[in-house]
Design a protein that fits this description.
about 120 residues; mainly beta; Jelly Rolls; four-stranded antiparallel beta sheet; two-stranded antiparallel sheet; 8 strands; about 35% strand
Length: about 120
């Protein structure tokens, strides 16, 4: 089962990297910095046993910091995700795009993490 993604919005955590779908860019890309946090809580029926949770992720790049955690308390799963984008200006330069894209792809892998249950 995939961890449900937050509500999603233009300023949401997952929307930051929507433009990371190209291998390279020829021009600077507009980008907004700042901090975004999401907390998702899922309560499972008592008959469901969680076999494995995703591993927490910590990622530091020249563009910012991302971290996630997955914690069970009884039958309730709490997922915390935080992204802080630190930019020098309102754009990501075309030559910096590959590093920015790699950050986005690492975060996308975490956001698509799976929970194993029985």
């Amino acid at each position: 089962m995939a961890v449900p993604v937050g509500l999603g919005s233009f300023s949401g955590l997952t929307s930051v990297f929507d433009a990371a779908n190209q291998d390279k860019r020829d021009f600077p890309m507009p980008m907004v910095g700042g901090r975004r946090e999401e907390m998702t809580t899922v309560t499972f029926p008592e008959t469901i046993k969680i076999a494995a949770l995703p591993k927490p992720v910590t990622l530091d790049t020249p563009f910012g910091h991302y971290e996630s955690s997955y914690k069970m308390d009884g039958s309730t799963l709490t997922v915390m995700r935080a992204l802080e984008m630190r930019l020098d200006g309102p754009t990501v330069a075309a030559e910096d795009y590959p590093v920015w894209r790699a950050m986005g792809m690492a975060i996308a892998r975490d956001v698509k993490a799976q929970i194993l249950y029985q």
